[in-house]
């Protein structure tokens, strides 16, 4: 299945079963905005719960907050977003399509990299077992020529961006003869910087004094509350503040379903540390976050770290945890060592001291910050795309199954009376009441049992509990497990504990 087909299948499955709908679809939708349906919102809530539990509940020194989306506009001056949260954009004059200039250049470079990979593949084929890839890459004239070209392009682009020379970016696009993928033409407008923040006005105040922004990241709500939380919670360094909330970015091109949206949700944690210890904490959080992902059981081979070469203005180290999405490895989470940039800058702009008095050294200083920042929607897409499986069964039948990690599945168990009479529905509903206190469970009596199993497979329900005639006498039920389709007879008195042991949130923490 091609990457594009894989993503298309996930998108259509997500819509058909009530996970994700295009926003305002009856008006033909709004680009890059999506609504989470009845099962999607359950899955999203479970992901939030898993993150919040791991961060806030399992750590004595991390607390959670919920800050407003609107913040004082000076916040964004201090954070650097007003001046520097830009993407360089360029329009093609013939197709009138808009592009990110950096992406056009990156795609051009990726094509050359593709050619190098083809050269390498050919070499491998020709030399078989004797092939030494490293030597080939460092000596083959074709590869060397192409690599030199890549280095030249990257060098020119970096120096143009570092000096804010947008004319040089345009010249680079022209010199490389990059054509618009839609019109095929090479007639481009000048490159302009485009600020990604959404601007609006507060109340009836007009003019600059009323301007507010929709926050482009949740982190600043944490920085401006650093002192409130530290003082009211009597927190000592190191300590963290966690938050889940909406963020908004006017992305020039938003595509690939919920991977890149203009309205999305972040789960961020800012960890305040003593200056000089940031490297140790950066490494700590890199490994803690990797373990958190690994507990979901979505395959260690589907994750990799990518270190940032060009660091943001506020960082002294940064990396991404990338996930193998249907369209390849892409950023899922960022881990950044943000120095004291934000707190210092807020001190300067607000005139308020944002320090920590260290009772041991009797010093007062601005803490350093290590942050972990994950996009909830991207995590949702990672889970859904990883879970989507089409399977051929013995006997030639087929099924589509969502192998969602059981503890975060939207519905944990379905209770199914074998037939709709003889007191089986009543017994099944008793079991439903028993289980629904702790878990999201569903009752279904329509259609043959096999079809009901398929429906539950398609939405990722880990357990199907069948009530049959024997249940009325032996007080036991048959529990079918989603992935292996194995069946087990369980006494009703043991059922709540059994279900909990299979799908409870604790299963993720016991690994
Ligand atoms: P990218 O390079 O993909 O634009 P970023 O480096 O700008 O992402 P950060 O500012 O580090 O992203 O934001 C932290 C996390 O927020 C990202 O790892 C990602 O999961 C999520 N995120 C960022 N932008 C979007 C978006 N437009 N839609 C959905 N999630 C997003």
Can you give a write-up of this model?
With 511 residues, the chain is α+β, with helices and mostly antiparallel strands. The chain folds into three domains: 3-72 and 197-385, BirA Bifunctional Protein, domain 2 (2-Layer Sandwich); 86-195, 2-Layer Sandwich (Herpes Virus-1), CATH 3.30.40.230; 401-509, Rossmann fold (3-Layer(aba) Sandwich). Helix content is 40%, strand content 25%. It contains 18 helices and 23 strands. The chain has a seven-stranded mixed β-sheet with strand order 3-9-10-16-13-12-11. Strands 20-19-21-22-23 form a five-stranded mixed β-sheet, with helices on both faces. A three-stranded antiparallel β-sheet has the order 5-4-6. A hairpin with a 6-residue loop joins strand 4 (86-91) and strand 5. Helix 5 runs antiparallel to helix 7, helix 5 (101-127) crosses helix 8 (166-175) and helix 7 runs antiparallel to helix 8 (166-175). The longest helix is centred in the first third of the chain and has 27 residues, at 101-127. The protein starts with a helix and ends with a helix. Bound molecules: adenosine-5'-triphosphate.
């Amino acid at each position: 299945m091609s990457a594009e087909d894989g993503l298309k299948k996930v998108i259509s499955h997500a819509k058909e079963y009530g996970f994700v709908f295009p926003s305002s679809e009856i008006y033909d939708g709004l680009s890059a905005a999506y609504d989470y349906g009845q099962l999607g919102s359950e899955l999203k809530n479970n992901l939030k719960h898993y993150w919040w539990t791991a961060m806030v509940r399992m750590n004595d020194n991390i607390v959670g907050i919920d800050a407003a989306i609107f913040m004082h506009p000076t916040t964004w001056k201090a954070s650097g977003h007003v001046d520097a949260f830009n993407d360089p954009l360029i329009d093609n004059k013939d197709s009138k399509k808009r592009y990110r200039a950096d992406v056009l250049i990156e795609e051009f470079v990726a094509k050359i990299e593709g050619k190098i990979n083809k050269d390498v593949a050919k070499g491998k084929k020709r030399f078989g077992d004797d092939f030494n890839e490293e030597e080939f890459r460092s000596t083959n004239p074709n590869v060397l020529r192409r690599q030199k070209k890549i280095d030249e392009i990257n060098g020119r682009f970096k120096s143009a961006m570092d000096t804010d020379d947008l004319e040089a970016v345009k010249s680079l696009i022209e010199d490389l003869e990059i054509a618009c993928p839609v019109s095929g033409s090479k007639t481009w407008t000048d490159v302009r910087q485009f600020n990604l923040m959404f601007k609006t006005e507060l109340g009836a105040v007009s003019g600059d004094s009323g301007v507010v922004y929709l926050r482009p990241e949740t982190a600043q709500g944490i920085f401006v509350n650093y002192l409130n939380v530290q003082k009211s919670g009597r927190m000592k360094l190191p300590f963290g503040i966690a938050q889940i909330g909406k963020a908004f970015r006017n992305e020039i091109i938003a595509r690939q379903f919920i991977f890149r949206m203009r309205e999305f949700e972040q789960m961020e944690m800012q960890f305040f540390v003593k200056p000089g210890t940031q490297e140790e904490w950066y490494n700590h959080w890199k490994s803690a976050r990797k373990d958190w992902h690994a507990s979901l059981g979505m395959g260690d081979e589907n994750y990799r770290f990518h270190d940032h070469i060009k660091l943001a203005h506020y960082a002294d180290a940064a990396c991404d945890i990338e996930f193998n999405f249907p369209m390849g490895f892409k950023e899922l989470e960022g881990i950044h060592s943000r120095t004291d940039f934000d707190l210092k800058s807020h001190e300067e702009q607000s005139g308020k001291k944002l320090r920590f008095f260290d009772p041991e050294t009797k010093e007062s200083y601005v803490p350093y910050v290590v942050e972990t920042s994950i996009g909830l929607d991207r995590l949702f897409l990672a889970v859904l795309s990883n879970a989507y499986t089409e399977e051929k069964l013995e006997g030639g039948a087929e099924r589509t199954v969502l192998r969602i990690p059981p503890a975060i599945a939207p519905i944990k168990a379905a209770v199914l009376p074998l037939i709709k009479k003889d007191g089986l529905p009543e017994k099944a509903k008793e079991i439903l009441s028993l289980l629904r206190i702790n878990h999201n469970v569903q009752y279904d009596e329509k259609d043959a049992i096999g079809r009901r199993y398929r429906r539950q497979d398609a939405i990722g329900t880990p357990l199907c509990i069948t009530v049959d005639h024997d249940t009325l006498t032996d007080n036991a039920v048959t529990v079918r497990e989603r992935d292996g389709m194995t069946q087990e007879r369980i006494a009703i008195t043991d059922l709540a504990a059994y279900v909990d042991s299979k799908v409870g949130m604790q299963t993720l923490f016991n690994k």
